[in-house]
Every structure is written in structure tokens, then in C-alpha cells.
Design goal:
Elements: H1 2-29, H2 33-50, H3 52-55, H4 86-122, H5 124-139, H6 142-153, H7 158-169, H8 171-184, H9 188-195, H10 200-236, H11 247-256, H12 269-297, H13 299-302
Helix pairs in contact: 2-4, 2-12, 4-5, 4-7, 4-8, 4-10, 4-11, 5-8, 6-7, 7-10, 8-10, 10-11, 10-12, 11-12
Amino acid sequence: MTEQKLVVSRTRMRFYQIIKGAREFASIYKRSKPGLLGLAILLFFIFTAVFAPFISPYNPYTRVDRPLRPPSNEYLLGTNDIGQDIFSELIHGTRVSLTIGFLAALCTVVIGTLVGVVSGFLGGSVDEVLMRFTDVIMILPTIPLLVLLMAIFGRQSYFIMILAISILGWPGTARMVRSSTLSIKERAYVEASKAIGAGEGHIIAKHILPNVSPLIMATMIYQVAGAMMSEAGLSFLGLGDPGHKSWGMVLHYAQTSGGWYGNQGYPAWWWIIPPGILIALTIASLVLIGQTMEEIINPRLRRR
């Protein structure tokens, strides 16, 4: 009975610590106007992605009017070369672009964290091998290799794209997590855990990962931005999934299907400019959030 009470007490204490930490984080975050702006923009896009079927005025895969019709009250951003509503395409594209960005970033951060923690904590020959392999991946040209990987996998699929981005995107995270792990494992409470016979898995789970998690969160925000840029670039080159709408695929079809000259010899600006603006806004919002989180993690940045 006493042991059960002790377990309940520890669980309750951890819960209160999490709540306290979240409140402290929120109170500091609220002081940053750029961070609040970035969060507001990102939440707007997330809301749009979640409720895309209800917000979209038309089915983005259905022809609604004549091709390349300019913006009007009926079609806010006009139509594309086959008469589909571009505004509806972009709304549904929000869901696809954000999903790819977050899933690819999650996979990238998981791989990078695993490599960084194992390398930094174990050290020695394990650290040497893992870091040399990380260096090799890091110096490879990303976009050409992404194109090559997509070609090797042999089919245009967003699952394949997420896999390719994850394979090449983890080294930066691994480097940062390793550096933090090297510092944390020298602290007194980690040495005390070793002295009483705690196993490596226990120390990593109880001491290393909780202390590197703020860094991982900030890193993931930047990874989402990088993954969305990679998706937009690959889709623009024609390597996206043609069965789904994304901002990059909208730009691809604008580039290949008359967006630059189909409007009586002039560019159909309503087809070309809006996807680029949406990509830029999303990346900017993620950067603002990431910078704010870095300031919270590193108090020296707040004092500048």
C-alpha cells in the first residue's frame, strides 16, 4: 500500500511539474510579439487544413467553369487551365502541405534524436562511427539527392517523399542533440544515478531525454519549415503525387500548363502568386515560432 502511495505521489508530482513548466513557457512566450504573430498565422493555416472540406467553396478536383478565368466574386482566385477553382485547390493544399511538413519533421527529429542521444551518451567508438556517418550525410547535396531518391523509389507518392526527406534531414538534429547530451551526462544527478547502479536505458529515459526535449521541440519547428520547402521544391519539379493537391503541385501545374502565358500571352498571376505567398507565410510563421522558442530555451538570447 505504501509503495502504491509512493507511485501515485511521484506521478502527481511529475504532472504538477509539467503543468508548471507549461505555464512558465506560456508566460514567457506571450511576451514575444513575433512569436505570437507566427503562432497566430500557423494556427490559421492549421484551422484551414482541418476544416478544408467545409471552407472550400468547390471541389478542387471538379471543373467548375471555363479555363483560366480571372478572379471574380464567384471564383476568388480564378480557375486553372482545366477550369478548377484555384481558391479551393489552395485550401485543400494547406492540409497536404502541412501534413507532409509535420510528418517528415517528426520522422527526421526521431532519427536525429536517437542518433544524437546514443552517440553522445555512449561516446567512444560508437560516437566516432555515428558522427562520421552523420558528417557524410550532412555534406551531401540535399535537393539533387532528394530527386535521385524519388527516382530510385520509382513512384510519385507523398509517403515516399516523407521517407526521402527524413533520410537526408536528420544530421543537423543529431549534431545538436549530441552536443546537449554530452553536457547533460556530466551533471551531478546523472553521475549519482550511475553510482547507485542505474542502467543506461533508465538514465537516458529519466535524465537525458527530458532535458533535451526543449531543444528537440525547437528543432522540430525548423524541421517542419525545411520539410515544407523540400516538398514544395520537389512537387514543383513534378515529383509530387499528382493525385493530391499541395501548394507545390499547384505551382507545378501553373508552370507546366500555361500559367505563364495562357492568359492571352500574359501570366495568370492568380495561379502563380498565391501559392508562393502561402508557402512564404507558413515558413515565416514557423521561423518566428522557432526563434521565440530558442529565446525561451536560451535565456542569454532574451537579454540581447
